[in-house]
Structures are given as C-alpha cells and as structure tokens.
From TrEMBL:
Protein name: GGDEF-domain containing protein
Lyase as UniProt keyword: no
Domain EAL residue range list: 1-250
UniProt KW keywords: Membrane, Transmembrane, Transmembrane helix
Source organism of the structure: Shewanella saliphila
Keyword Membrane found: yes
Residues included from the entire protein: 422 to 671 of 678
Any coiled-coil regions, as ranges: none
C-alpha cells in the first residue's frame, strides 16, 4: 500500500535503494556524471518511483525521503573517491515540495560537510515546473546553492512554462532536454534545436535525456549537444553494476 505510513516504514526498514544512470560525453563516450534514481524494494519486487513519489509529495514524507537520497549520494561520492580515486558528479532529483522546504539548503550543505565531499560533485535536478511555482523564492534558493558550489540542473526542460526572461535570472548550470523531444529526433527537431540554441546563448551545459538510438545520437552530436543519457548507452543500474561497468574496469 502506497500510504504515508508504508513509506515511513520503508524508510525505517531501509527498503529504498538508488540506481545510477550514467551520463556520457557524446563524442568520446566517456562517463562524465550520473543520475541517482530511487527504487523501493518491497517483498522482493522493485517499485518504481512513479508509483510512490506522488504520494510522498502529497503527504510531505518526500522531505525525509529526499534527504535520504541526498545522504546516500554523498556516501557514494565519498566511497568512489576512497575506493577508486574516482570523481564524477552525482545528480539527485529534488521534488517540488522538497525544493520549497526551508531545510533543503542547510541539509545539503551539512551533508556535504559531514561526508567531506566537494560540492561540485553533487548536482540538484529541479523540474522547470517547480522552479516556476515561485520564481522569486527559486532565485533566492538557487543563489544559495550556487554560492555553496553545488551544480544546478533544470530537469524536463521544455515541458513546463518557463518565462524566458526569468530563466536568464536563474543561476543554473545545466539544462536537461526532456526525453519527449529527444524521442522526436531526427524527424521533429524544432524544439530540441531551440533548447540547444537557448542553452548556448545562456552559456549552460545541455544534457539530452532519453537517447535510445544512433539516429538521435547523431543528430545531437551534429547539433553540438555534448552530454547525454539514455537506454542507448545504459539503463539506470544498481550501484555494484554501475561500479563494475564504469569504474573498476577502468
Ligand atoms: O527512474 P525512473 O525513470 O523510473 O523515474 C521515474 C520518475 O521518478 C522520474 O520523473 C524521476 O525524476 C523520478 N525520480 C526518480 N528518483 C527520484 C528521487 O530520488 N526523487 C524524486 N523526487 N524523484 C525521483
Ligand atoms: O524525470 P527524469 O528525467 O528524472 O526521469 C528519469 C527517468 O527516465 C528514469 O526513470 C529513467 O529510467 C528514465 N529513462 C532514462 N533513460 C531513458 C530512455 O532512454 N528512455 C526512456 N523511455 N526512459 C529513460
Ligand atoms: Mn532527472
Ligand atoms: Na528529466
């Protein structure tokens, strides 16, 4: 049952885990980062975040769950440095309500200090829609995160209703092209081209999501998109598999 009580128990009983999806340099095919994606392991089955994140948001339990995701990611960053001398940024998804909560910025800063990780190695992914809920507050909060050195990505870009004039004032470092627009490539490329041009004008790093085939990859390379993720390269993987495939083999 996806109720607040069952999510609370899941946290207490350590039933959540993170999968990691690599992000690649599209030209060199080197891993340049990864995205942490939560799963719920319940009675031997993996439950997708799509079926519990909405309930978690409605009930407010997304705050401790989101904090758990950030803490786990900090631990992994630290372990990769310790075990493999390996450092790539890990991106965590921050839900709308979690972004609005006053504890987010102090929590992230405190966790980065506790795990002794360099803040550039932690990136927050915030959907365009969450940012536009309250632009004035978003600017204040993003300034705090940026000043502290964390990476800031706008997730699912193109699906919300950004005011372009506000976008200019948001201290973001990365824009992620929503996979809906990547899946239209190469045939329908108007939106992807526009986002890429906008990102280049604003001097942002652009990540293409949901790359599934070589035609999409070719179009993105031809249009100067440098970073991407998607099933074409790798699905999200459990920690050990990510380490085996992308770290220990190096
Ligand atoms: O991993 P998957 O593709 O099944 O994710 C489905 C959705 O759940 C995506 O929109 C993704 O951003 C979201 N999601 C995955 N992990 C987290 C998380 O840790 N926190 C939040 N808020 N959303 C997540
Ligand atoms: O909303 P967000 O961008 O955080 O969503 C991440 C989700 O996208 C993850 O659940 C992941 O499983 C999914 N995903 C990652 N790569 C691909 C892909 O190439 N195709 C599809 N359909 N989904 C993908
Ligand atoms: Mn994301
Ligand atoms: Na996204």
């Amino acid at each position: 049952l996806r109720t607040e009580a069952s999510l609370h128990d899941a946290l207490k009983n350590n039933e959540f885990l993170l999968y990691f999806q690599p992000k690649f340099d599209l030209n060199t095919h080197k891993v340049v980062g990864c995205e942490a994606l939560i799963r719920w392991q319940k009675d031997g089955r993996l439950i997708s975040p799509m079926s519990f994140i909405p309930v978690a948001e409605e009930t407010g339990i997304i705050i401790p769950i989101g904090r758990w995701v950030i803490e786990q990611s900090c631990k992994v960053i630290r372990e990769w440095q310790r075990k493999y001398n390996y450092a790539i940024p890990i991106a965590v998804n921050v839900a709308s309500q979690q972004f609005a909560d006053a504890s987010l910025v102090p929590d992230i800063k405190q966790l980065a200090i506790r795990y002794q990780i360099s803040p550039e190695l932690l990136e927050v992914e915030i959907t365009e829609t969450s940012l536009m809920n309250d632009v004035e507050q978003a600017i204040i909060k993003l300034e705090q995160l940026k000043t502290a050195g964390f990476g800031i990505a706008v997730d699912d870009f193109g699906t919300g209703y950004s005011s372009l004039s506000y976008l200019r004032h948001l201290p973001i470092t990365t824009m992620k092209i929503d996979r809906a627009f990547v899946s239209d490539l190469p045939k329908d490329s108007a939106i992807a081209s526009t986002i890429l041009m906008l990102g280049q004008q604003l001097d942002l790093s652009i990540v293409a999501e949901g790359i599934e085939n070589d035609e999409q990859l070719q179009w993105l390379k031809d249009n100067n998109c440098v970073i991407g993720q998607g099933f074409f390269f790798s699905e999200p993987l459990p920690l050990e598999e990510f380490e085996q495939q992308f770290i220990s083999a190096k």
